[in-house]
Write a structure and sequence with these properties.
The structure is a homodimer. Chain A is of the alpha/beta class. The first copy, chain A, has 14 helices and 17 strands.
C-alpha cells in the first residue's frame, strides 16, 4: 500500500532514495544530558493517510532550547519516548489523500513546536507544515522559525520604529543577534551590538558589521562611548537583552525616554536589575519575549504568513543568511550536543544536523 | 486699582477677609533640607489682570516630591527664589477681566505643577486652575491631583481590569496605596495590600480593610500565603510597587501570566530585580509611572477632566477620603517638614498646611 502511494505520488528520483521508509531518530526516554540520554532508534513508518505527510528531513538545528528541554529545564515538557529537536527543513516524500496544498518534492518547515525533528523521516499532519521555496538555502530554512522570527517580532511588536531609529543589543553575536542586525539593515534601522571582549574581537566586529551592525562595541567600550551623546546615532528606542546582570543594566542605561528593553535570554544566569529612577522618570519598560508562545497564539494568522514571506524573500535575495553554523551528520550528534552546550568560541556557532545526503 | 477690582468682583464676606493682599510664602533660594532653606517671606501681590486669578490658598499638602525638589533630588528643578509645594485647594478672591469660567468664591485646585503653593495667597492664570465643588472636603481637594490621580491612572492605563480581577501592591499604607484600595472597592476590583510588619499591624490592617482592601498581609505572610493558589482570589493582573528590592520581587512573583508591575516609588532605595524566566515565559512586564509627566502630556484632555469628575464624585459621596493626615498651620512648617521626612509611624501620615482660617 505504501509502495502504491509512493509510486503514484513521488517523483522517481525521490522515490529511488526513499524506498526503505525506516526513520532513524534521536530519541530519549528520560531527562538528562543529551549525550547521555539520546539514542539513535530505528522505526518503520506507517504510510501517510488522510492529512498526513511523509517528510524526509534534510537539516535540523540543535538549539539551546532543545537541549534545555532534554535536560528538563525548559517550560515545555515532552511525552516520553520523545524525539529531540523543534526545527527542520524537509522534503515531502508522499502525502495522504486529503492533503490539499503540499506536493511530493516540496520543501517544508514546521509550523508547530515539539514535532521531534532530529530524525531522518517523519509523518506529520499537513497543518503542522508550511511550504518554503527550495530557493531558500537549507541552513536558512532549517533555522527560520526560531531565531529570525524572534528578531522579527521583537523589532515589530514593542516599539514603532522608523528608518533612522536605533536599536541596541547585547549578545550581538548570538543567532538572534545576527538576525537583528540583518533585519535592521534591510529595514533602514541603525543597530548597535554589544559583545564580550575576546581575543578575536576584531574579526567578530567585522563579521557583525558585514551583517549590518552600525557599531559593535565591547561592554567596556560601551561604558565610555559617546555614540549617542555625540549625536552620531539617535538614542535607542529599543534594546534586546539575552545576557542579564550588569550587561542588561548597561544596555538599558542608553535607552531613550519611553524606550523598551526586551529580554529573550539570560546567558549570565543573573537577573535584570532595574533602577527605580529610569522606570518612573524616563518611562523605560522592561518586557520579555518567547517565540514559542507567540507562534502558538498566532498559529494560522496572516501576520505569521506575512513574516515568513518577508523573511523568505530576504533569504532568497541573499540579504539574510543563517547564523554562523556547522553542518554535522546525525551520527555525530553526541559531539554536536556537547559542543552546542559548551561552545565558548567566537560566535556561538550553531550546529545543524545534516540528513540531506 | 486693586481695591476697585476687589470691590467690583468680590463677595463682601470674602473681601473683608482679604483687605490686605500680602502673601506669606514658604520660599527658598538654594537647595537643602527644607527646615534649613525655607523661610516665610511676605510679598505684596499685584492686582490680577487679564486671565489672572487671585487665590486665597486654603490647604496645601507636603508631598515627598516637594521635599525632594527642595533638596535638589528631583528631576524637576525650580527657578530661585522658589515657593515650595505643588498641590493646594484655594478660593478665588478676584479675577482679571478676561477670566471666563472662574468666579470669586469658587474653590480651585491646580492643573499645572511647580506653582509654588505653600503660600497664603497667589496670583495664577486661569488656565492653571480647575474649579472644584466646595462639597469636596478641603483635605481631599488639597490632595486630589497627585496621589488619587496616580492610583486612578495606574489602574486604568496598564492592564484592562474587569470587576472580580485582582490588584496587588506593596506600600499599601502609602497615600497612593490608600487611594488604590478605595478606587478598587468603588470599581469592584479585588485589592491585596502588602505592608511591613510593625507593632500596630492589627490596626493598620483593619484601617486598610475599611478603605476597601480584600486582604492585607505582611511581607512575611505574603511569602507563605495561599490566597491565589487556593482560588479565593484570582491571580493579580496588575501590581504596584513603591518599595523596590525584595518586596518588589516578592510582589511580582504572584502576578498572573501577562501581568504588569508598575513602579511609582522606591522607598527602600533598592532597585527592582527582575528574574529572566518570568519575563520570557510568563510575559510579565515591568513598567513605571510618573504622574507629573502624565499631567503635562494630558493637560487639557477630556481624559483628564473625566478622571477629576469621577474622583470628585466619589469624594462628594464619601466613597473616597484623603489619606491619613494632619493639618498644621503655616508657621509650623519646619516641624511638619521634618516629620514628613522622617515619619516612620503607622500609616505614613501626610501633613497638610492649613491656611483656611
Amino acid at each position: 500500500m505504501l509502495r502504491k502511494t509512493l509510486k503514484s505520488l513521488v517523483h522517481p528520483s525521490v522515490l529511488s532514495r526513499q524506498m526503505s521508509i525506516v526513520a532513524r531518530s534521536l530519541k530519549y526516554t528520560q531527562h538528562g544530558e543529551p549525550q547521555d540520554v539520546l539514542q539513535i532508534v530505528e522505526d518503520r513508518l506507517t504510510e501517510p493517510r488522510d492529512q498526513q505527510v511523509l517528510v524526509k528531513i534534510l537539516a535540523a538545528p540543535i538549539n539551546p532550547a532543545d537541549i534545555n528541554t532534554i535536560q528538563g529545564k525548559y517550560p515545555v515538557k515532552p511525552t516520553f519516548p520523545a524525539v529531540g529537536g523543534n526545527e527542520f527543513v524537509g522534503q515531502v516524500v508522499c502525502v495522504g489523500d486529503k492533503v490539499k496544498d503540499l506536493q511530493p518534492g516540496s520543501h517544508v518547515v514546521p509550523l508547530a513546536t515539539g514535532m521531534g525533528t532530529w530524525t531522518t523521516h517523519a509523518v506529520y499532519n499537513e497543518d503542522q507544515l508550511m511550504a518554503i521555496s527550495n530557493k531558500v538555502g537549507l541552513a536558512e530554512a532549517a533555522t527560520i522559525t526560531v531565531n529570525p522570527c524572534t528578531a522579527y517580532r521583537m523589532l515589530k511588536d514593542f516599539v514603532k520604529l522608523s528608518p533612522g531609529d536605533t536599536v541596541i543589543q547585547n549578545g550581538a553575536n548570538s543567532a538572534v543577534g545576527q538576525a537583528v542586525h540583518q533585519l535592521c539593515r534591510a529595514w533602514g534601522i541603525n543597530s548597535v551590538g554589544i559583545v564580550r571582549n575576546r581575543p578575536e574581537i576584531a574579526e567578530l566586529k567585522m563579521m557583525l558589521e558585514c551583517l549590518g551592525a552600525n557599531a559593535v562595541l565591547t561592554e567596556e567600550e560601551m561604558r565610555t562611548c559617546d555614540l549617542f551623546k555625540s549625536g552620531k546615532l539617535k538614542r535607542p528606542k529599543l534594546a534586546f537583552n539575552c545576557v542579564g546582570g550588569k550587561s542588561a543594566t548597561e544596555v538599558s542605561r542608553h535607552l531613550d525616554d519611553r524606550g523598551v528593553m526586551v529580554t529573550y535570554g539570560g546567558m549570565s544566569r543573573e537577573p535584570v536589575t532595574v533602577a527605580t529612577g529610569p522606570l518612573i522618570f524616563k518611562d523605560i519598560a522592561f518586557r520579555g519575549f518567547w517565540m514559542t508562545r507567540w507562534s502558538k497564539e498566532n498559529y494560522n494568522t496572516t501576520e505569521r504568513s506575512k513574516m515568513f514571506r518577508e523573511l523568505c524573500q530576504l533569504m532568497e535575495e541573499g540579504k539574510f543568511v543563517a547564523p554562523t553554523h556547522e553542518m554535522v551528520p546525525l551520527e555525530k550528534f553526541k559531539e554536536a550536543a556537547i559542543a552546542a552546550l559548551n561552545f565558548k568560541g567566537f560566535t556561538g556557532k550553531k550546529f545543524i544536523l545534516d540528513m540531506s545526503c
